[in-house]
Amino acid sequence: MMTPEEELAASRRLHWMSILELHAISRGDQDALVGEERRLTWRDVRNQVRAVSAELQRRGVNVGDRVFILSLNSVEYVIALLAINTVGAIGCPLNSRSVSAELDYFVDDSGAVFGFVDDLGAAVRERSGIASEVSVICFSEEFQAIAESGAQPEAVDVAETDDAFIIYTSGTTSAPKGVLLTHMNMISQALNTTRTAPSGAPTDCNMVVVPLFHIAGLAFLYPCFLNGVKVVIAPPKALASMESLADLLETERVTNLFLVPTLWQALCSSPGVRDRDFKLKGLSWGASPASRETLQLMADTFPDAHISAAFGQTEMSPTTCSLPGEDSVRKTGSVGRPIGLVAARIVDPLGEDVRPGEMGEIVYRGPGLMKEYWNKPEQTVQATHGGWFHSGDLVREDEEGFVFVVDRAKDIIISGGENISSVEVEHAVAAHPKVADASVIGIPHPKWVETPVVFVVPADPADPPVLEEIRDFLTDRIASFKKPTRLEVVAELPRNASGKLQKHKLREDFAANE
Fold first, then answer.
1. What is the mean pLDDT of residues 114-123?
2. Under a CB-based contact definition with an 8 Å cutoff, are residues 83 and 53 in contact?
3. Which of 23, 217, 313, 341 could form a disulfide with 42 if both were Cys (CB 3.0 to 4.6 A apart)?
């Protein structure tokens, strides 16, 4: 139980735990979190976070410890994240679609000492090695009993600069890296979001649909706490059909919603959507490019709403650029302009600024920049050399300051909003006994925007592998959404004199043949 002096000290902090305490006092009876058959006020959330925090302390979780969450989105997920941070520990949200080998790597690399799982996460965990040795609380009757116990934690003074989350990247050129984010990083993101999106009125309601293990999910959730906005955590069944999603939007009178372009396309195309009594006023999209047709469909379906796009990366907490709806059609292909709390430059290989229209790497700095890559000091130094964070994105800027991504230097494939590392898929495919060499690129897809295609040099030209053989082989090696959906057998892969793979030639040849 906090003393009055400790409560006063905690109230001076600026992170989502201290803000929760303020909302519990000033608007305690108002709805804060809504989920499947659950509706919690700000006071309810505060009380449950305290109780779960006390349980974490009872089980030996200390300041700086890492605690993973392996679960689909839920109200319990949010309570657990807040409780982890309340005791000064670091939350490690893990992709619920991870296979056992990936999960073991995340838990081992982070050094997690405890975890939270739902039924799906429990099943995945049972198939893993290291992760199965870590004690967990399951989001079931056990969690509910703990959350409603009324227990009080020992007070911990968590500073704004303390560590909050480790979010794992897709692993572009090596194993996935853990991005260590502080509470200040997240507050910076919340302030940026508040400046670029219409949210914060007492009657507003935001719905979280994107997974909370994605930085996009956390980045959409955090500003809701800053502004005291009711949050609806869409249950998995709400995404079973666009009709069920529309029902929830209508019933809860949702005003602000972030979706990947694929889902916006599906929602706006669903039958009867324009006859609904929606209250949406803020539509945002990101995680993958949106076509001109999708943007126009959004504008036609919700003509009175403010539409904006967000671009960035986990290391920047994540948003770096924003594209408002009024510019989205005339600037199709742009990711917008740098936002208020982000300084950005476009530089050549020597670190010198390029002129408008010229291609260069976009580099950033600002309060949203990560603290470091977890346990990877050399890669941290490499990514921040010269005093700027080097994104790896090759871009050009037009005369109005709008940024256009020319190429993703790290060869990330973005399929349905999911980041897929082509290098990771290549390594997995190359382990097949029928494969001598492999390369993976993203190709356009009418629904998912991009999809992986693998180019394979067979070990025996007379007996090349087929797609289903490769996909079956990858079942326990990479998550299903990372599997290639097309296979091309080639005699050799294009490489330069030093042996470096030339993926741009693969893209050019594939496009020419198609």
1. 92
2. yes
3. 23
- Type of residue found at 427: H
Which helix (H) or strand (E) covers residue 505, if one does? helix 503-513
pLDDT for 171 equals 55
pLDDT band at residue 498, thresholds of 50, 70 and 90?
very low
Average pLDDT, the chain: 90
Q: Is residue 251 part of a domain?
A: no
For residue 288, tell me if it sits in a domain.
no
Helix (H) or strand (E) holding 169: none
Domain presence at residue 136: yes
Q: For residue 131, give the 3-state DSSP assignment.
A: helix
Burial label for 1, CB within 10 Å (0-12, 13-18, 19+), is exposed
> Where a domain ends, among 115, 133, 159?
159
Domain that holds residue 141: 1-29+40-159
Name the nearest CA neighbour of 263 among 281, 246, 282. Answer: 246
Q: How far apart are CA 327 and CA 360, in angstroms?
A: 23
Q: What is the pTM of this model?
A: 0.84
| Residue after which a domain boundary falls, among 159, 189, 215 | 159
Report residue 382 as tokens: 């490499």
Give the Cα separation of 243 and 271 in Å (integer).
8
Strands 403-408, 334-338: parallel, antiparallel or unpaired by DSSP?
antiparallel
> The domain that contains 432 carries what CATH number?
3.30.300.30
What percent of the chain has pLDDT above 90? 63
pLDDT for 172: 43
Alpha-carbon gap, residue 493 to 291, rounded angstroms: 31
Residue 261 pLDDT greater than 90, yes or no: no
Total count of domains within the chain: 2
Q: Give the pLDDT confidence score for residue 497 in this predicted structure.
A: 42
Tell me the CA distances in angstroms from 28 to 14, 33, 262, 336, one per residue in order. 19, 12, 37, 38
In whole angstroms, what is the distance from residue 321 CA to residue 403 CA?
Answer: 8
Q: How far apart are CA 264 and CA 297, in angstroms?
A: 9
Q: Lowest-pLDDT range, 277-281, 331-335, 381-385?
A: 331-335
- In the chain, what are the helix, strand and coil shares in percent, each to the nearest 5? 35, 25, 35
- Indicate if the pLDDT at residue 474 is higher than 90: yes
Q: Using DSSP, state whether 51 is helix, strand or coil.
A: helix
> Amino acid identity of 158?
V
First to last CA, the chain: 67
Axis-axis angle for helices 42-58, 16-26 (nearest 10): 140
Q: What is the mean pLDDT of residues 301-307?
A: 91
DSSP class of residue 449 equals: E
Q: Count CB atoms within 10 A of the CB of residue 93.
A: 26
